[in-house]
Structure formats: C-alpha cells, structure tokens
Amino acid sequence: MKPEIGVFSFTGCEGCQLNILNLEAYLLDLLDVIEIVNFREAMTEKGQDYAIAFVEGSITTPEDEKELKEIREIADVLVAIGACAHLGGVNGMKQLRDLETQRREVYGDKKDFFPTTEVRRVSDVVPVDLIIPGCPIDRNEFVETVKKVLMGIPPMLPTNPCCVECKSKGNVCMYDKGLSCLGPVTRGGCDAICPSYGQPCDGCRGFLETADFDAMVKAMENEHGISTEAIIRQISHYNAVPAADLIAKLKAREVIHA
Amino acid sequence: MHENLNINVHHMARVEGHGNIVLNMKDGTIEDLRLDIVESPRFFEAFVVGRHYRDVPHVTSRICGICSVGHTMASVRAVENALGMEVSENVKKIRKLLHDAAFLQSHVLHAYFLVAPDVLGVGSVIPLAESHPDVVKMALRMKKFTNDVCDALGGRTVHPINVIPGGLARFPTKKELIELKAYYEKMLPDFETTYEVFSSLDYPDWFAGFDRPTEYISLHKPDGEYPLYDGQVISSTGRIIDEQDYLSMIHERVESHAAAKHVSGETDTYMASALARYNNNYDQLRPKAKEVAVKLGMGHPCTNTFANTFAQVVECAHLMEEDLAVLTELIENTPEPEAPVEPTKFGRGAAAVEVPRGILFHEYTFGEDGILTDANCIIPTGQNLANIEADMQKLVPGILDRSKEEITLSLECLVRAYDPCISCATHFLEVDFRE
C-alpha cells in the first residue's frame, strides 16, 4: 500500500498548498508513490494513519487547535510548511496592535462572532518534526522533503544566510541601494529571489539560530540610519511571533546603540 | 418529490477555502438554504495598517495564494492611485501579460480540476488520470505553461515580486519575449482541444437549462480592450462609474438570516465573475473568443450561472489571441528598463481590477510618511455570496423530484460554478463557527 499523505490547512492563504499543486511536472510521478488524502475527507475518518502530515497556516482559533492536535495523534511525521505554520507569518502582524481594537475595526459590533486567539505557530501547539520554510514554500524543497522522508533520510535545511546566495548571484547589496534588508540574519535556500528582484529580504524563511541581532540592529541604525520603527516593521513582517521578545525590547527603548 | 429534506455538505471539496451548504425543507417548504463560510477570520485590513506603501502589496497578496497575482495588481494600482504615481504604457503592457497568465492559470485549474470531475461523475481529478490520461496530462501541461509565464514575468507564480508600486522590478528581455511567444504558439493546440472538450461534454439538464437573470458588475472600457487590468466600473443596469467612486455602486449590508455580510449592487444581489465580464464586454472580445462562445452554445447575454465555466473558457480563447498580439508588439518594440516612478502625493486611492473570480476593489489611505492608515478590500466571492443563495433558491424547487444525491450534487456544482475563493472572502466576512 502506498503511504498516505495529508495536506492540512489552517489560517493562511493556501498558497503553499497551491505550490504543491503547481508541481505539474512531478505530480503524476508523486501520485505513483504516495496517496494524497485531503483535509476535508480526512476528518470524517478518524484513526487513519498518515505517513506524513503537511500543515499549512497559523493556529488562530480554538477549532484550529483541536484539529491540529488530532492530526498530530495520527501522523507519523508532521511537517510545518510555509511561513504561517513555521513562524506565524504575516498573521503575526496582528500581534503588534491591540487585538480588541482590530476586531472592532474589521467586524464592528459583530466582533464577538469571531473567537480569534493570539497567533500561534504550529510548534506552539504540537511537536513539529520538520519544516519547509518560506512564503510561499519552494516547490522543489517540498519534493525533496517527501523523497527523503520516504527513504528515511533526515532532510537538512540550509544554514547559510540569504546573503551568501545573493552575493553569488552578483546582486548589488540592498544596503548600498539605501534599503533595509534582513538577508544577513535570514535562512537561505531561496536563491535570494527577493533581492534578485530589487526587493529587500523580509525574513520569510525564518532567522538563523546563529543570528546576532544586536550587531544587526546596531549596523542598521548606526551605519545605515534606519529608524527603530522601520526595523520593527521589517522584523515583524513574518517574524512577529518568534521575534516577540526582540520587538518588545526595540519598542521599549528610545535610541539604540547611540 | 421530497416533502422533508435535510442536506448539509460540511467542508465542501474543490472550492478554495472552507464552506458548508445547508438545505432544510419541512412539509414542502424551504426553511433554510444557504452557503456558510467556516474559514478562520483573517484581519488583513487591520494589520496592514502601519505598513509602508512599498510593503503593502507584499502583505495584501497574502490574502490569497491562489489569487495572489490579482491581489498584487489591485494593491499596486491602489497604492499608485493614492500616491499619484502614473506608470508608463510599457509597464502596463507587461503587467497585463502577467495578469492575463494568472487568468489562464485559474481558468484551466477551475475548468479541468474543479468542474470537469462533477460533469464526469467522479470525486476529483485523480480518477480522471486513469480514465482520461491524455486530457489530464494536457491540463497539467497547460497549467505548467501558465505558471511558467507567471514565473517569467512575475518572478514567481504564488506571491509575485516583480510588480512594485511605480513600475516593475525587472523588464523582460527581447530574447525572453521571443521565447514566451514561441511558448504561447506551442500551446495553442492544447487550448483548441480544450474548446472541443468543454463543448462536447454531456451536461445534466439542471446545468444546461438553468436560467436566472441577475445584475452583472464588472470593469468596462467603452472604446478599449476587454478590461481586466483597469477601466471604469459598469453594472448591467447601464450605469458606469469611475473606480474611485466604487462605493456608490457596491453596498455592503448585514442580513439577519445569514452569517455572511452580503453585498448588493444597483438593484439587489449581483454577480461578479467571468460571466459578468462576458455579458458586459461581449463587443470587446476577440473574434476567436466569440467563435468559442458559439461552439459552447452561449448566447449573449447569457443568464445561466453554470455557464460561468464556459465564459472562463471563452476568456482563455480571447487571452491567447490578445497576448500573442501584445507579445508581437513588445518584440518589435522591446521596452528599455525604467526606474519605478516616485510618489507625487500622499492620500487616498482606490483601484478596481478584474481577477479570475470577478471584480476586486482595494482602497488605501496613506499619511505623509508613506505609512498606511486605512484599508478596505472587497473580494469577488464576498460580492457573490448573496447571489449564490438567490441562485440556490431558484434551482432547488425545480429539481425536488430528484434524489437527495443529485440535489446535493447540483447545489455543489452551482457553488463551484462561481469558482468561490473563501480564503479571500474571509478577510472581512462574518463567520459562523457552527460545528
């Protein structure tokens, strides 16, 4: 029997799921070796076992949390795919402002219909075995992960910063263009696609464990004159949840490394 | 004939996002018939507040991965309108090619992967890979083509990065344009086959015979091309307005019986879709597209909601012809790269663009520092919800002699005909979390 694979979707744009569907060249080959069982069928048959459960989206409602825990119970390997699942992603921005105010802004006096909670990463709710980072995920990284899990080889994420790939492509540094960029602290593996299109890295693949934020912030402010506000904005684009402490620290003080 | 009937399709498949269909009948009377939206609330309009104008399209494209090219276009154009940035004709031409490719992508996906399984009586495209391998392989090839074009012009298909406020980050080279044109030409036979496939399928009577005239709202360019990227806003009642005045035509209202915020147009409920564009802009279609419409048995105007899929196929024919002409032009006169234009003011601006599922509005206000202070987005699926329910009310009484399974299928097909995108819609819809 072919291993059954589930793709589950929580609060997000479903773009990562679409990128899996966008694997046209591989899709039929993939279906030869795996069985894709989708979310809406899955929940009617409890107790089914998944070789791999791919989870996209952040966890923002009590229902999300309950379903995610059920998936964890029946999945051998659970993979968080995309920035929303991995980091909270753009959803995390709502953490920066008062939640009640925002509920009122969007839903007015009907706000109590929406039991939204704080934005959580998948790993804030259940143990996560693997990550496919990015906003959106890279199609080839998905295929590689499936192959390696099926062969029993642990997939490895790149440990170099985005800058390494950016330099090797010969891009002019964003800082030399007067822009602010998170390439130095962000996990590579994206082929520096954003800087290659003239746009700074906003950190969608997550920050490296080795990142030195004190040095980074100091350089951004002192050498490039970037305001604390702008730094907070950029860090919180995808990383408001994992970088909550750093953001609180930046918000708390007037001038940094003067 | 059913006297009592309860249908509850929980988390219906093959729509983007999560929705439920509910039908309750008692003693021959329909007590409840609606489409519930059960996606999580998203709060985009709230958390985009405080972002710099350059980042706003990167944030709002994340409303929906499936519609990310369309949201990017609406967002970038709304930023440009708010900041007084006028881009060149060449920039518009290249953006339109990308925008069109996203339409082709979405229409191919909807017609082959979401609608065809219904008509052929299977649960998904996967069994079709066994029974109709050539057609499925062709559909995958077409999808790959459209994604390759989006990659080439947008940087990537999902959340494109080449379209930025004020212009484009990168212009395609002449060599790339020549290669693209050859690619379009190579794909023409697959599109020809598609016109044949969808005109030769055997559609159920409730599909082929449905008729409910409604109001249609779309973009319009009286003297221009079939409008997808920009234009005025037209209602099939005949009223035409500037995109900045969209709220004088598009009215949001709260229905006490329904969980979703509903939208009405000039009259009552209305449809935003490929069918709306087709009905309002038939004269601007290229000859090949009109030929395909005849082949598919579409009149004009066409008031059969199920024919929205046909209108999508007609648009594919139009866009293949249109884009080949634009590519030819761009190859002859290849644009030099231009630096993005800078803001000339900071204020409020709205943009209306067509996206595969219908007309989409983004509206922003910026302060002098370029930081967003206010945002509003009105999404096609949200506009269509009330009309979907009105169509359901028309459909069900005519098919009560059928089995519960067939009634369920017909309701699912009706919802799928709108190609609803619930991820998009829930950034503002009222959500009912019933279990």
Structure description:
By secondary structure, chain A is α/β, with parallel strands linked by helices. Chain A has helices at 15-21, 24-33, 39-42, 62-74, 82-87, 99-107, 139-151, 162-168, 193-196, 213-223, 228-239, 244-252, and strands at residues 4-9, 35-38, 50-56, 75-81, 130-132. Chain A has two domains: 4-151, NADH:ubiquinone oxidoreductase-like, 20kDa subunit (Rossmann fold); 162-252, no CATH class. Chain A has twelve helices and five strands. Chain A is globular and about 60 Å long. Residues 40-47 of chain A have low confidence and may be disordered. Chain B is an alpha+beta fold and 435 residues long. Chain B has a four-stranded mixed sheet with strand order 8-7-6-11. A three-stranded antiparallel sheet of chain B has the order 1-2-3, covered by helices on one side. A three-stranded antiparallel sheet of chain B has the order 12-13-14. Classes of the chains: A alpha/beta (258), B alpha+beta (435).
In a nutshell, what does this entry contain?
With 258 residues, chain A is an alpha/beta fold. In chain A, 41% of the residues lie in helices and 10% in strands.
Structural class estimated from helices and strands of chain B: alpha+beta
Low-confidence stretches of chain B: 426-435
Count of distinct strands of chain A: 5
Specify the overall morphology of chain A. globular
Looking at the structure, the CATH topology of the largest domain in chain A is: Rossmann fold
Terminal Cα span of chain A? 64 Å
Describe the strand arrangement of the main beta sheet of chain B, using strand numbers.
8-7-6-11
Instruction: Describe the main β-sheet of chain B briefly.
Output: 4 strands, mixed
Q: What count of domains describes the coordinates of chain B?
A: 1
As residue ranges, the low-confidence spans of chain A are: 40-47
Largest interface: A-B, 56 and 56 residues
